[in-house]
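Hi everyone,

Forwarding the result from last night's run.
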Amino acid sequence: MTTPGARVIVAAVALLLVGCATRPSNAPLAQYDRSYGYRVSNWQAERGDPDFGLVVAMSGGGMRAAAFSYGILEELRRTTVPTPQGPGRLLDDVKLVTGVSGGSFTALSYAQYGDRLFEEYEQRFLKRNVQRDLIGIVLNPLAWPKLLGGSFTRSDLAADYYDRILFQGATFGDLRSRGGPFANVAATELTTGARITFNQNTFDLLCSDLSSVRLARAAAASSAVPGVFAPVGFDNYAGTCGFDMRQNMVRVFGSDVAKAAPGRASLRERELAPLQDGVAHRYLHLVDGGLSDNVGLRTLLEGLEVAKASEQFRAVTGFDKLKRFAVVSVNSHADAENDWGTHEAPPHVVSMLVRATGVPIDRYSYEQIELLRDFVHTMQGTRGADGQPLAVEFYAIDIGFDAIADPDEKRYFRNLPTNFALTDTQVDRLREMAGRLLRQSPDYQRLLRDLGVASTPR
């Protein structure tokens, strides 16, 4: 005979087990079609000047990165440039935004909201204590049934929360009708270390239809810091839709792929190759995109290298028609101060782990920015199908805290946390500093002069 208390416990356990939830699954792709889906090659790039390609790459770094990137968009919105129709906004020339981790929220939100971003983003996200809300959700007993026994995780709770406060159920399929820039955000596949970009080109390999994937799940995956958030699960249907990665490489580079494909493209092929096995890698576990690309430049660098090597790629993307191509790299890297060097005893193990993972990521971030600058120089000698040099002028615009002249100001921004909880004052200072650094950038000032802006702002 059981006691009333025991019956209550049994009933509670039964309720928890019944409530076990599975994560949302990404839909399979019935048949591979390179003209279908959310991909750059079939994106309607009618925004702004067709001769001008403007890219904004947004780094990782929690709410600090989201606010800093937003400040860059605000400055581009304030900047007036001449157009055939009269004065226009430089923001309207942005064709592509990339984002990882914290930067993915700003990138995806701008692609979704367009101009509404500047009316709603602050209150919906930047000036909300997201970290406190997420902790409260996880500690709420009403959420526990979802987390017990199934494949639904804390990151799925986070994705649902991001949907409620920011993305409102929008999917990548919805972005096709929004008229905004193409958004490319990335996460890291934990088993293989591969970078997973949320565009149909990558999802072709997985034989999955990206159009049904919610923006909130992409943002949750891109910002899922290991140890803080659980990996975000996705299904891999590779081998079921007729996609062949080697045939795709041949289509772009010709039959002698080994000779024609640039090193970065070949490396990307090897990186993704294991995921062609849809049995051994039936389930993907995605974590913070900053682990494989902390400044959002890897996909862009790969694309530029392919554009240099493949006339077919340049023709499909319209790259060979550009007269100007500018990349604004928004790097919110910050190296918080510590006094470890003044103590004989080693730092705490948690601090060491954070530092051990942060140092290589930061060094890799700086390397990518330098690679972009090097690429700008080498691209000048690229020739088109007619044998003539491509008539495109490049601008590599790096925006980061290292350019702050005042030591006290620099120290302030470099010590801002990378969590998802900043004060209103911290958010506003990040926005203002982003605009100021962009205005002061020599490369940005050169771009404005070449666009015909009478006087460059300071």
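Confidence is low (pLDDT under 50) at residues 4-19, 349-361.

Cheers,
N.
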